[in-house]
Amino acid sequence: MDLGLKGRSAIVCGASRGLGRACAESLAREGVNLVMAARRPDVLELAAKEIRARTGAAIKTVPVDVTTPEGRKVLLTILPDPDILVTNAGGPPPGDFRDWDRAAWIKALDANMLTPIELIKATVDAMIERKFGRIVNITSAAVKAPIDVLGLSNGARAGLTGFVAGLARQVARHNVTINNLLPGPFDTDRLRATMEGQAKAQGVTLDESMARRRDANPAGRFGDPAEFGDACAYFCSAQAGYITGQNLVIDGGAFPGTL
């Protein structure tokens, strides 16, 4: 299916690896002109090079930390008025809430709530004027099924979700949509890093811990980042203009609820 995105422009954050990279590649395949942002210039440029080779897309790389005002300023200087914005930042570390001070909470809120809001604020009005805009926030399935040791992430991402729920209804009549993608366990470096702590706590190897997590999923496997990227591309498509303010859980059926 042609998603009607050829020639559109997009900013994709956290685009050098994992789910952000998968979103960038799926959009590139649809003919979107990309600005890929991430902190590590070497990893980012390698990802862009590989995506260019596979898709022929026009790609600019911006090695910045988008969770800082300085990083966002540089990024938005390169592309101030994208048609598509994909926000994404690594989650805060796990732990016990008794150990988190105010600084830890502010850092989590800056990265996983306030940064997406600032990027939306900087780009949404131009989308409204053009009568086209697609904003996709990569959050977490923990927004719907909180994970006790990820309280910083639960809180910050739930705050973003509440904000989006209101704003999405305000801009929908202008063909601007805002939705959230909520990943469960995908085969990424981030998952392995998180599982290392669990493996130590369980007294097993990382491979054994990963196998337990994988086998416990109703799908019997981890997600492929490419699947996530294609879901992102659909949310950005011309056909998805009637979908807004939604939270799509992509987790192989792990979330046990009906709604």
Automatic annotation (TrEMBL):
Q: One of this protein's Pfam families, by short name?
A: adh_short_C2
The UniProt family comment states:
Belongs to the short-chain dehydrogenases/reductases (SDR) family.
What name is this protein filed under?
Dehydrogenase with different specificities
* Organism for this UniProt entry: Paramagnetospirillum magneticum (strain ATCC 700264 / AMB-1) (Magnetospirillum magneticum)
